[in-house]
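Data availability excerpt. The first of two example chains:
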Amino acid sequence: MLARYQIYRGPSPPPLPNGIRQDTRWRTKHPLRPTKEMVDAYMASLDDAGWRRFRKAYLALLEERFQTDRAPFDEIAKLARDGDVFLGCSCPTKTNPRVDRCHTFAALEFMRKKYRDLRVELPQSD
């Protein structure tokens, strides 16, 4: 199964999910990470249009990475078929409170489309 979790820093963090947790924030080298520029542009414009621009650019980036080197995506899918894998991000936050407007939500949709046999759990949006 492939899902997401919130990376939380601070007092009394919620329990971590059991399974493989992968940090997918822009600072990492994860294949599902967005670029810093994409995140900065979205954080400067958190409205509907800003989300649509971010999502379109982010999905295009994932498609380019997938076409260039599919192996890291296949590895994530294999891990998720064999157990539980959780894609991590700091969202939701005070600045971006909607989990359905996090790159991990779009990444899960991308993986669901590419690997139709994969069980993908999208978080409930508010």
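And the second chain:
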Amino acid sequence: MFVVALSRRLLVKTIDAAVVGIGRIAIDAHCKALNELEEFEFAAVCDVTPSRLEIARDLYPKAAQYTDYEDLLRDAPVDLVVLATPSSDHERQVIQAAQAGKHIVVEKPMCLTAEGATRMIDAARANGVCLTVFHNRRIDADYRLVKQTIEDGLIGAPVVIESRTHEYGYIPFAKDYVNWRLDKSAGGGLVYDWGPHIVDQMLLLAGAMPTSVYGILLSKVYYQETDDYFKIVLRFPDGLVGQLESTLFARIKLPRWYVLGTEGAIWSEWQSARIRTTVAGFDSEIIPDMSKGGGAGFHENTKSYYRSLHAALVNGTEPSVRPEEIRNVIRVIEAAIESSESGQVVRLS
């Protein structure tokens, strides 16, 4: 239900929320943000693992606890369900939540197939609830800088956009906390982990779906069943080339972004950047100060995401991350997997 609370002398419609799946992303992102924001009442948690519920009880003693998802949907008086569960469970759990009349935030990846995404979208529409995906990386400073630089015309028309996440020594963390990343049936692997974020950003920058996808997925160092390296090459209708890459064994890292345009270029890391362009006829380099106005961290970005969602729910408008957009992300990932398995370019109509 929606209740009215007076906080900081503002009249706020508070939305009761439950978080399902109390793993690292739930604790570090969803639970923390929902507990701090006055727009939400963090009302319940659900997990099948007792030790995780104990962690939640220590951190959030006021949140009701459930071990059965169906019990939560039936009994918990919440308006919003946040699913931070293994990717292979998303489709089923979203449809169940929609049928129970709950609004839904689902962690990335939205699901494992575009057909599954369509079934989720249809269920949300049929039951008149909001479905959105936690693509908080749309708010990242590095992505927003690249996007604004292109939109301002500082580098002319983009010709090649390279986007990558290079990490090293990640596997001990993965083994200890997020075993689903090692499990193919659960939707593990990098292409379903970092892939959704950087594919989504690329599609937004291009403003279109690619006409072709070429993918390479490898299991070389840390993962055996799932990929610990991927490269995806996208060709877009206007000739733009997108190159996406992610790995867990990069002892020497390439930049997060490298963009070549007809009149300039962008080199960017997470919190630093260089832009080469022409100013008054002179070849010039711009060094943005990303610590001012654009350098919000992960937690602040998460809260920004939920504030935007609250506004959409209260006003009856579409969320900032529309599920139809993320279905396109899943289509590209599916095509990359198909390409890697066949060794052939996959054409998208």
